[in-house]
Design brief:
- This protein is an alpha/beta fold and 276 residues long.
- 44% of the residues lie in helices and 16% in strands.
- Strands 1, 2, 3, 4, 5, 6, 7 and 8 form an eight-stranded mixed beta sheet that branches.
- It is globular.
Amino acid sequence: MIPDRSRAHELIDHLPRQTWHERSFAYWAEKQLVANDSWWKPLSTVVVGTATTTMSMFLRLGFRKVVVDDLHKLTDVLERERNRPIVTVANHESTADDPIIWGVMPARLWWKPDCTRWTLGARELLYKHPILNAFFALGQTIPTVRGDGIYQLAVEIGLRKLNENKWVHVFPEGRVNQEAQMLRFKWGVGRMIMEAERTPIVVPMFFTGTKQIMPLRQKVPVPRPNPLKSTLYMKVGDAMDFAPLVGEWKAARAKLSSEEAVRLDEQVRIAIVDQL
């Protein structure tokens, strides 16, 4: 189903506004969705650029070694003149993965709005206070509610950003996973890939090392740098193009009944997610 352009606004209209915190959250959700105020771009650039700069320094001071293979496979896609949006997907080792992992990006991209990611982040962990609402909204972190499914506000905002030719990063496991076996990916990323107006280029990534500095269930949930032992390793994979599959899906869907189309939608979402 091609996304209804008004759905995100409808979801925002139905957000509760009883408390100061709820009103703040609804305000920033709408500002983040549209992101066209004259002050938005400079303030967002400052927040994202400062965070990325800080994380670059953190990597140098907090890890014994940082190894990144094939980063050019992402930067080449970001920097060339592009007419399609970008989706990156990665495993999720700790609640500090974003923004820590973006400290590996070259300095020339830190302050370029077109080369900085939008990402989906847990609302219950990040959007706890009006000040944090402003910070994470301007930091291009889209509030996601675990369990609200693939038609929630976060996915609608993610689609909006893809339709604006932006870069959206997703941790499709849906939660932090410090086990050796990766979790089955959630379907929201499949929906965004399918329903974006222009099928995004998908760049897969894998990293390890952040769980060493931020293990689960620690009493104080802040990173613990260990420059004597910790190693961060990141591998960027080859870009993936789902445009042919999405084209076939759209053509087949047009000939089906509503019930048949729903079943086909699910099958294609699963097929995309299973290839990531």
